[in-house]
């Protein structure tokens, strides 16, 4: 019975600690990067409805520029964009040894793409249209990771 | 008569002899003999003709000598003159000397019988020969063979040369040698006598001779008995009045001068009804009677000295004959031209009635005056039913208004017109015909009405329709194939609004689950959902249009709008290819008439091709230029230029051939179909390489004509 209580306790404390951490790191916003305004806007809203602060960018270049002065907790990115694509952003960050968690949303559901993204260390990969619960879980996990690292 | 050498020239070569037979000397000899015999035949025949000429000239000269008035060497008329001119006019130039020599032989015989001095006779012959050659040569130069004395030109030439120029010139010489040989006393009287004698001869006899010789084929014709009767009545009348006037009255103061006009009605009758030939014969008859009268001291001309008498006779006949001859010629000419017109009309009718097209004619008041057999066979109606406005009953009621507008407009402007309309065939079926008409004008430029033709083009139209259907089917097939290749991009294009909708809806639900939901925010979300749903609907509408297999609908289009539509549809594909579109779409382009779907198909083809061509191009430079602009103010030009590797110059035209492709997959029909579509729209599609990089596909479309739907 005791171990069970301890376990319970542990679970409680762990949750409490993680909650404290989450509150702490949640001050950093989630970055949303999508060239298409309707999608960007809807994702922005969804993040707000999750209770997360959010910052939106219309292109990869814009997003990368922002990193120098304001760092997000994680980024939700469209994979195919005119100009800089999701892949390019990912490789740019890798070159800069930046391990910012990246969650990709794409219309392309080929196995190749998924594999390529995961191998490069993507924090999430979703095919449009995305279910909000799954996305929330992924974001939370990414934030959590980011928080642990802080 | 040394005529043999001349005739040798005329003989054609003997017929060719077979080589085999030639080897036998005997046969060859026989052939030689036959040729010689033919020579002799010809020589004999020619000689006979010259002999006849000599005899004729001999007899004519005899008559001339007999017609010499006492105390004068000059005849009243000198028939040999007219005879020789007439002969010369109908034989080849080269034979003139022979004929002249033959004639002079005849003359020499007469002079010898009359015991005239030889030298003087020879001089006379030279004079006559020159005179005749001059007259005949002049007539030959002024007229064109065959000479028939049927036109005013011929009559003027004959009268001018034979009655005026030749006698006028030669009389100076003739009078001089007559005086020098001791005949006559006064040079000018002799000159005048010669002149008048020759002129009278030319007027009185030459037309008759020319008509006789020149219209030889007419003598073969059978004469209707009515005409023969008329000629008989005329002759009798002429003879009776002639005898009454010229021969019955003894000369004297009682001779009534008014009577000499009595034969005139008969002469005019001859001129009106019997042509130059009949007139000439009638005048000759008058001459004979008058001369007989003068010679026997009878008639109105016998008053003074024989010279005076002959003068007044010649004057009288010259004054009567010249106008009557010309009158007869003019009437004949008029008759001939009317006969020609009748002949032409008959030919026109025969031709139009056998022609495989329908032909009509209208007067100046838009009333139809003629339909050929082809038309009547087509409509199965009679000419009487069709004349005037009757034909309009066969025109399809739906087409009548339009056709009559085209016809009336063109008619009033005196312009050519062409139109298509339906005409009822005799079996009741309405057939499409192509009708055209042109205004008719007479030589003076006066409007005469219209003449036109109609051709049944129903079969042609059906074929055209079938070709069009095949073209559309091919275009559809190619379009469906193309859309299949683009399905990934199309799905993405539809996925985008769906994603936005779902995300928005889920966000809204989360907002509403809160204790104090921000309704304003939720309202904004719902608005966006509506917009996105509409966008999805638009995508589906566009796609459905492209997949639809429907009738081609030509409608007024703004190409800018069409291009924008296509760019929206292809947005995902362009993004996937990392291609940036450089759109230069001019505003206010001329409206073109076209099928929206087919033109979109062309644009999609060109844009997708451009993207594919840039697969190997560095991403930073993958730019696709899409430009629309006004072309020369009379159409629209659309260009799609890529930055790819371009097309080999010798392949620029080949890319439009079917089953020619540079891609791994695809049938190579895309561009071939594009060209078919643009051509069917009355435009042009071509490819060229850009100066710096890549290829550019350009097409033009004509602006929609004003007033057409």
Oligomer: heterodimer
Largest interface: A-B, 24 and 29 residues
Work out the helix count of chain A: 6
What would you say the CATH architecture of the largest domain in chain B is?
A: 2-Layer Sandwich
CATH level-1 class of the largest domain in chain B:
Alpha Beta
Q: Which spans of chain B of ≥5 residues are poorly predicted at pLDDT below 50? A: 1-28
Structure description:
- The complex is a heterodimer of chains A (150) and B (709).
- Chain A has 150 residues and is an alpha/beta fold.
- Chain A contains 6 helices and 5 strands, in the order αβαβαβαβαβα.
- Chain A has a 5-stranded parallel beta sheet, with helices on both faces.
- Chain A is globular and about 35 Å long.
- Mean pLDDT of chain A is 80; it is low at 1-9.
- Chain B is of the alpha+beta class and 709 residues long.
- Chain B has 3 domains: 44-221, Orthogonal Bundle (Arp2/3 complex 21 kDa subunit ARPC3); 355-456, PAS domain (Beta-Lactamase, 2-Layer Sandwich); 469-702, 2-Layer Sandwich (Heat Shock Protein 90), CATH 3.30.565.
- Chain B has 22 helices and 12 strands.
- Chain B has helices at residues 4-10, 19-22, 25-66, 79-89, 96-113, 118-142, 152-180, 187-204, 206-214, 225-248, 264-295, 306-354, 373-379, 383-386, 397-413, 458-485, 487-513, 519-547, 559-569, 571-576, 596-613, 670-680, and strands spanning 358-362, 368-371, 417-424, 430-441, 447-456, 555-557, 580-585, 592-594, 623-630, 635-641, 684-689, 695-702.
- In chain B, helix 3 (25-66) packs across helix 5 (96-113).
- The A-B interface holds A 35-36, 38-39, 41-43, 45-46, 48-50, 80-82, 85, 105, 107-108, 128-132 and B 491-492, 495-504, 506-508, 510-511, 521, 525, 528, 531-532, 535, 572, 574-576, 578, 580.
């Amino acid at each position: 019975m005791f171990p069970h209580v301890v376990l319970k306790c542990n679970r409680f404390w762990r949750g409490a600690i993680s909650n404290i951490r989450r509150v702490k790191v949640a001050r950093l916003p989630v970055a949303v990067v999508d060239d298409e305004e309707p999608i960007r806007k809807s994702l922005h809203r969804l993040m707000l409805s999750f209770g997360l602060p959010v910052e939106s960018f219309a292109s990869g270049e814009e997003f990368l520029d922002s990193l120098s002065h304001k760092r997000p907790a994680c980024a939700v990115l469209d994979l195919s964009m005119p100009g800089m694509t999701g892949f390019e952003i990912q490789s740019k960050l890798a070159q800069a040894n930046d391990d910012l968690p990246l969650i990709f949303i794409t219309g392309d559901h080929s196995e190749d793409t998924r594999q390529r993204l995961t191998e490069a260390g993507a924090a999430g990969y979703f095919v449009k249209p995305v279910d909000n619960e799954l996305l929330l879980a992924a974001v939370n996990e990414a934030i959590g990771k980011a928080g642990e690292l802080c | 008569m040394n005529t043999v050498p001349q005739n040798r020239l005329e003989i054609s070569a003997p017929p060719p002899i077979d080589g085999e037979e030639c080897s036998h000397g005997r046969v060859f000899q026989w052939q030689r003999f036959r040729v010689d015999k033919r020579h002799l035949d010809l020589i004999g025949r020619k000689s006979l003709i010259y002999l006849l000429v000599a005899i004729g000239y001999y007899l004519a000269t005899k008559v001339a000598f007999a017609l010499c008035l006492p105390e004068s060497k000059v005849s009243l008329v000198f028939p040999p003159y007219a005879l020789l001119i007439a002969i010369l006019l109908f034989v080849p130039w080269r034979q003139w000397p022979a004929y002249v020599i033959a004639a002079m032989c005849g003359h020499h015989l007469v002079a010898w019988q009359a015991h005239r001095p030889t030298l003087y006779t020879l001089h006379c012959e030279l004079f006559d020969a020159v005179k005749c050659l001059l007259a005949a040569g002049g007539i030959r130069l002024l007229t064109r063979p065959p000479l028939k004395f049927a036109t005013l030109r011929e009559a003027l030439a004959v009268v001018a040369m034979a009655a005026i120029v030749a006698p006028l010139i030669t009389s100076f010489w003739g009078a001089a040698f007559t005086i020098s040989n001791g005949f006559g006393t006064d040079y000018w009287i002799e000159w005048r006598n010669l002149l008048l004698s020759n002129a009278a001869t030319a007027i009185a006899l030459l037309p008759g001779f020319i008509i006789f010789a020149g219209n030889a084929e007419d003598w073969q014709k059978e004469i209707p008995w009515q005409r023969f009767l008329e000629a008989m009545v005329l002759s009798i009348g002429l003879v009776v009045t002639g005898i009454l006037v010229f021969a019955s009255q003894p000369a004297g103061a009682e001779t009534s001068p008014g009577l000499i006009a009595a034969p005139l009605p008969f002469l005019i009758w001859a001129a009106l009804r019997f042509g130059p030939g009949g007139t000439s014969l009638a005048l000759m008859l008058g001459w004979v009677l008058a001369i007989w009268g003068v010679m026997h001291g009878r008639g109105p001309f016998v008053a003074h000295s024989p010279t005076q008498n002959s003068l007044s006779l010649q004057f009288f006949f010259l004054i009567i004959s010249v106008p009557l001859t010309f009158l007869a010629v003019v009437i004949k000419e008029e008759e001939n031209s009317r006969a020609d017109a009748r002949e032409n009309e008959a030919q026109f009718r025969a031709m139009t009635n056998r022609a495989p097209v329908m032909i009509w004619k209208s007067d100046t008041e838009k009333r139809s005056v003629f339909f050929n057999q082809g038309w009547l066979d087509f409509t199965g109606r009679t000419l009487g039913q069709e004349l005037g406005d009757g034909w309009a009953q066969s025109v399809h009621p739906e087409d009548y208004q339009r056709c009559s507008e085209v016809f009336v407009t063109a008619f009033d402007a005196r312009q050519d017109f062409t139109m298509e309309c339906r005409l009822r065939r005799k079996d009741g079926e309405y057939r499409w015909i192509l009708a055209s008409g042109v205004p008719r004008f007479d030589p003076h430029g006066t409007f005469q009405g219209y003449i036109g033709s109609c051709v049944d083009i129903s079969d042609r139209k059906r074929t055209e329709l079938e070709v069009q259907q095949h073209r559309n089917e091919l275009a559809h097939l190619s379009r469906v194939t193309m859309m299949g290749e683009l399905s990934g991009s199309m799905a993405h294009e539809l996925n985008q609004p769906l994603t936005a909708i779902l995300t928005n809806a889920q966000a809204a639900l989360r907002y509403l689950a809160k204790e104090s939901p921000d309704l304003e925010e939720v309202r904004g979300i719902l608005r966006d959902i509506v917009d996105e749903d509409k966008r999805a609907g638009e995508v589906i509408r566009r796609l459905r249009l492209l997949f639809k297999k429907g009738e081609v609908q030509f409608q007024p289009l703004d190409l800018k709008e069409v291009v924008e539509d296509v760019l929206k549809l292809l947005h995902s594909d362009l993004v996937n290819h990392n291609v940036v579109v450089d759109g230069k779409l001019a505003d206010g382009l001329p409206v073109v008439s076209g099928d929206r779907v087919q033109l979109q198909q062309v644009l999609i083809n060109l844009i997708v091709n451009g993207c594919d061509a840039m697969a190997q191009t560095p991403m930073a430079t993958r730019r696709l230029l899409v430009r629309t602009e006004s072309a020369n103010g009379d159409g629209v030009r659309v260009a799609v230029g890529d930055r790819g590797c371009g097309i080999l110059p010798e392949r620029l035209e080949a890319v439009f051939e079917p089953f020619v492709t540079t891609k791994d997959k695809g049938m190579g029909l895309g561009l071939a179909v594009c060209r078919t579509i643009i051509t069917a729209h009355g435009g042009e599609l071509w490819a060229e390489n850009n100066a710096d990089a890549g290829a550019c596909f350009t097409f033009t479309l004509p602006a929609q004509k004003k007033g057409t739907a």
